[in-house]
Amino acid sequence: MRALMVRLPSGARYWTVVDDELVVVPDADDYLRHLRFGRDSAELTTKSYAGAIALFLRWCRRTGRHWHVGVEHLGLFMTWLTHAGADSDRELGEVLAGPGARPVRGARRVNVVLTAVRGFVAHAVMSGRAPAGLMPLIYELADDRDLPEAARGEDSRMPWRLRARHRVHEPEGPVNRAGDDDIVALLYACRSARDRLVVVLMARAGLRRGELCGLRRSDLHAAGDSRRLGCEVEGAHLHVTRRDNPNQAWAKSRRQRVVPLDSLVVRALDTYTLERLEDWARREAMPSEEEISRIRGLISRVKAGLDDLSAEERAGIAEAVEVVRRHRAVSVAMPQTRRVPIDLRPTRRR
After folding, report:
1. Which segments of the chain belong to CATH 1.10.443.10?
2. What is the largest CA-CA distance in the chain?
3. What separation in angstroms does the CA of 147 have from each of 112, 136, 165, 322?
4. Which residues, 6 or more positions from 269, have their beta carbon under 8 angstroms from its beta carbon?
5. pLDDT top residue among 39 and 332
6. What angle do CA 95, 97, 98 make, to 5 degrees?
7. CA-to-CA dists, residue 157 to 141, 150, 272, angstroms
8. How far apart, in whole angstroms, are the C-alpha atoms of residue 35 and residue 41?
9. Contact, 342 vs 264, CB < 8 A?
10. I need a surface site. Which of 21, 41, 71, 278 has the fewest CB within 10 A?
11. Is 70 exceeded by the pLDDT of residue 112?
12. Which CATH class is domain 180-270?
């Protein structure tokens, strides 16, 4: 069992589960298609869920259980998932976890797999592909006493809700975030203004990689007043929008949001714009190969003597001279950019 990417004739993509013969597993495929197109989930979400469901179905096959029966033994599946490595799919493979053996998968990864399996089972029950008796095996009724006060109801009644029966405790710890020194070192290693802009947007604006790669020029409003662009948001900002992009980038959140930009990000954006303008000016200012060949031919004719040239040929010489002068003028007036080290702590005194 493994995950496989599927591309539809419309160009839309999602991930499904296939067996060793590359045959699609119908129950898993029905859930993953519903997840991608029925609930508008991201393609990467179906990839993660397909890998999780493939692990569950692989364990059921190795233990000789139908997946309906495997739901009754999710505790055993959790133990296998924690300690089974890549070699556990072999025919003669065994899980030998000795004292002090390090788990192969952490608590967070195990909980992600269990979330996908619960969604798979619940969808199969609701669509009639599995018996209704599987639902009490994955969920239990619980009250709201373990919820924070802000999440409880205002009435005096004790509401009931469904709570997952199987879950691994995730130890809480500090987030290992990159420090300012790490970000500055990364900026110094960048070789272009584009790379520096990518680093600054992730560090200062907090964008996800999918949101960053899906940005377009129309999403960036660096001016103080963007009403001329039809945007009523004040100050420098950018818009994060979920949409299909040619590079397959996808924003995870369905809701469009506005992210304010500080002066450091605006400065990095200006440097990137000047760098692109410089490359564009060089490409536009350089004569084409046809123009260069024609100029060379005319110069050869000039060497033979101007008196032998016709009026049309002399006009061609004048046009060639104008092309050369225009190229030199653009090259002289071309904006020059240099690599300016960006300080992430502008208020710091040197």
Report:
1. 180-270
2. 107
3. 21, 21, 16, 77
4. 197, 220, 222, 261
5. 39
6. 145
7. 15, 15, 59
8. 6
9. yes
10. 21
11. yes
12. mainly alpha
> Dihedral through CA 342, CA 348, CA 349, CA 350, nearest 10?
-40
> pLDDT for 213-271, tens place per residue?
888 878 788 777 777 777 777 888 888 887 777 777 777 777 788 888 888 888 888 88
What's the rounded Cα separation, in Å, for the pair 24 and 192? 45
CA proximity to 282, closest of 334, 338, 336, 339: 334
Task: Specify the amino acid at residue 300.
Answer: S
| Those residues with Cβ within 8 angstroms of residue 127's Cβ, 6 or more apart along the chain or in another chain | 30
In three-state form (DSSP H/G/I as H, E/B as E, the rest C), the secondary structure along the chain is CEEEEEECCCCCEEEEEECCCCCECHHHHHHHHHHHHHCCCCHHHHHHHHHHHHHHHHHHHHCCCCHHHHHHHHHHHHHHHHHCCHHHHCCCCCCCCCCCCCCCCCHHHHHHHHHHHHHHHHHHHHCCCCCHHHHHHHEEEECCCCCCHHHCCCCCCCCCEEEECCCCCCCCCCCCCCCHHHHHHHHHHCCCHHHHHHHHHHHHHCCCHHHHHCCCHHHEECCCECHHHCCCCECCEEEECCCCCCCCCCCCCCCCEEEECCHHHHHHHHHHHHHHHHHHHHHHHCCCHHHHHHHHHHHHHHHHCHHHCCHHHHHHHHHHHHHHHHHHHHHHHCCCCCCCCCCCCCCCCC
The whole-angstrom separation of Cα 101 and Cα 161 is: 37
Q: Using the structure block, give the residue that is written with the tokens 């006060």.
A: 149
Structure tokens at 316: 């061609």
Kindly list the distances between the CA atom of residue 192 and the CA atoms of 23, 121, 182, 211, 341, in Å, as whole numbers in the listed order: 46, 49, 18, 21, 12
Type of residue numbered 280: W
